[in-house]
Amino acid sequence: MRFSKPSVIVTGLIATIGLSACGGGSDGGSSASATKCTNKIVHADAKQVSVWAWYPNMAKVVDNFNNQHTDVQVCWSNAGQGQAEYDKFQTSISAKKGAPDVVMLEAEQLTGFEIQDALVDLAPLGADKVKGDFSEGAWKDVSQGSAVYAIPVDGGPMAMIYRKDIFKKYDIDPPKTWDEYAAAAQKLKAAGGPAFGDMGSNVPALVTSLMIQKGAQPFQYDLSDKLNIGIKLDDQATKDVLNYWGDLAKKGLIGKEDQFTTDYISGVVSGKYATYVSAAWAPGYLTGQGVGEGDDAGQFGVAELPQWDASSPVSVNWGGSTFAVTTQAKDKAAAAEVAMGLYADDASLEDGWKTQTIFPLNQTVLKSDEFVNAKVKFFDGQTANKDIYVPAENAYSGATYSPFTVYYYAQLQAQMVKLLAGQTTGDQAAADLQKQLVEYAKGQGFTVR
């Protein structure tokens, strides 16, 4: 889930790795003492498990859990969204005290905390009991070999949102490939239409997903060999993707506005962009910003994500959150029960998808007739789940993330700034990224292969 501008602030995360000094749990533990409960405890005599999470409907989700469990209760607090929470969690890791028992983390951030021994392997605590509730790709994103470090909740299978009114006016069909996307963008410009889409510098996760879709494997990493990492950012697939977007920007076929900003949203509302390449959480995000509520109501449709090779389609993901158990948890079994059961009951999942708070990864929802056949209001009644998002999620095969996602995203963002401004080429940006990441990894004590 991603409802605000993604942060790429570099924290002290990797600086603390020192690996030999990375301890597991501390004597202090956390329990509910690390969190001031913002919810009602229903069964006062039950074990309490502290949770940090930022889902907008978290109060309702916690109440659902506490009302359904007599043996364990959730003590919930919102410690901040995304990077704000991660900074606090990192501080508690360094201090070896102050962490919650269960923490909400985006999937791409897990490895950076796993390498610090900050998260508990849930496999011995019953994770396999819920493995069947998720797709292979969703489970891969939270796993390292046979170890499982979090429970998936929501995800971001990618697609292309488009303005039906603009496509109709200029006689454009949803492009099935990126070549068709570029051709449609050129046609739209020649006819005096708006920008075909937008590529901001502040969406490195989006760019990475498109690189992976093209066949890139930016990182190869296995937690069982902590100090060994493969980095490949100067491959042809990465160069091709960066050159593609740099070329569209140079030709004036797309906008270069940073996304998740007021100006960008105003552009979406006013029809400044014909398409929005994004994830399944985008309709909820856009609706929350007032998109589709005024003159633009009923004007949005969604199509499959364009492919680099139509004969070999690849589904990719952007975003998505999980619940992980921290090594500071005193009662890890109780914390694991919460991680596996929180936002997993029917009432919470239904509230999550109907309010567009999450795109659920739980297969009980993804296979339900109500969800699959839902006519999505934002898309003027289109059955977007059945047509686009569920097939994309089920086809997603997972990704491998590095232990330093935050640093990588910061460097990719800096390269995108130069690329979109015409100050570098895709080839050079890829070469510079490779050099920067290899040097950084070696500086942190990794062997780079």
Automatic annotation (TrEMBL):
Family annotation (Pfam families): SBP_bac_1
Keyword Signal: yes
Superkingdom assignment: Bacteria
Keyword annotations from UniProtKB, A to Z: Signal
InterPro entries recorded: Bact_solute-bd_prot1, SBP
Keyword Signal: yes
Signal peptide from the UniProt entry: 1-21
Name this protein carries in UniProt: Sugar ABC transporter substrate-binding protein
Organism field: Kineosporia mesophila
